[in-house]
Structure of Trimethyllysine dioxygenase, mitochondrial:
Amino acid sequence: MRLRQVFGSSVQTRPNASPSVASNSVISSISSDYESVHVSWKDGGSSKFHNVWLRDHCRCGECYNATTHQKEFNILDVPLSIKPIDVAVNTENGLSITWPDHHKTHYDAEWLKKHSHVESKLPAVTRRLGKEQNSFLWDKNTIESKFPRPFEFAKVVSDQEELNALFRSIINYGLAVVGGTPTSVSAIEKTAARLGGFVKETHYGKIWEFSNEVMEHADTAYTSGYLRGHTDGTYFSHPVGIQMLHCVGHEGTGGLNLLVDGFFVAEKLRQTDRESFDFLTSRNIRFEYNSEGLLLKAHGPIIELDPFDGTFSQIRFNNYDMAALDYLKYEDVARFYKALREFTAITADPNNQLWFKLTPGTLLIMGNWRVLHGRSGFTGKRMMQGCYVSMDDFFGKYRAMTFDS
Ligand SMILES: [Fe+2]
Ligand SMILES: [Zn+2]
C-alpha cells in the first residue's frame, strides 16, 4: 500500500509515514498498518479506523444515499481483509482511499473525526424520556412546585420555539399541558402532526372521541370506575409512546386525572428493595388484550433499562392487562408478587401521585414509556378525545428539529 499526501498538484509518496499537513487542517497526519488507517488530529488525539469499516462507510453516491441516510453498499461485495491500495490526505484535508477494485472513497475530515470510535458515545445514540439535561424524577411535591408552564395551543401549532419547549417538557418530565386547545378533534390531530407528524393508529382508531355512555370498546378505560395508574399498550411489542388526552366535556362529579412518574417509582424501588428491582428489570412479564378481532400479546420487563448505560428506558406496567403467569417457575412466584406489590404500593402512595381535573381546552400530553396515568371514578357524562404518537416519530421529529444527526 502506498501512502500519499496531496496538496494541489504536488504528490509525495511515503509508505507508512506520517506526513504533516497544512496548518488550518483538521488532520495533522496519517499512517496505516495491515488492517487500519491511523489519523492524528490537529487539535490532539488520534483515531484508528479499520479498513473494512472504512470501506463500509464510503459516502459516495454509489454506496450511500445522503438524502435518506441509507447505505447501498453490500458487505458481501468485499473480503473482510480488504486493504486500500492508496491512502492520502486530499486537498480539502479529508482522507482519500483507493480500493483494490479502483473504487475511490473521500471522507470529510470533520465527518471522520465525528464518527471515530468512542464508546462513551453509545448511550447518546438512543434518545429517551428523562435523559435530557434538565430532567428530574418527581413525586407529588416536586412536580407541584416545578410543574411545567402550560403551553399555548395557538403557539404550539405555529411557533417553533414553543414547540421546542413542548418537546423538552415531555422529555424532561414525561408530561405537558396545552391550554386554549379547541375541542374539535382536528386540534388533537394538529398537535400530533407537530409532535411526530403522524397519529399512531391502533385498534381504538386514530383519534378517539368517546363518552362513557357509549361503550365502543371493551377496555376498562371506557367505564366510569376508578382506573389505577398504568401505562397503555403493554400488550404491544412496541408500546405506544406519547398519549394525548383531552376532556372536552363532563357534566358530573369526580373524573380527576392521575399521573405518577414511573421512573421515580423505579428509582424508589431500587433504593428500598434491590431484589425486587432486579427482578422487575430482568424478567419479562406477559401482557395481553383481546378485542376487535385481535388477540394482542407481548412481553417485556416492567422496568426496562437502557442496555448501554443502565438508565431507565421504559416502564411497562398495567395490572389490567397482565397475562396468566404460567411462564414463571414456581420458585419465582413469591419473588414476583413481592416485587409487584412493592412497585404497585409506590405507585399508590398519595405522596407520589399528581391528581388534577382536566377541563375543556386543556390538552394533556404524556410520555407513556415513563408516566403512569389513571383517573378517579366519576358520575355523569364525560366526553374524551385522544390519540397516540409513536416514540420513534416523536424523537424522530425532535432530532430533525434540533439538527441532531
Ligand atoms: Fe390508559
Ligand atoms: Zn463508494
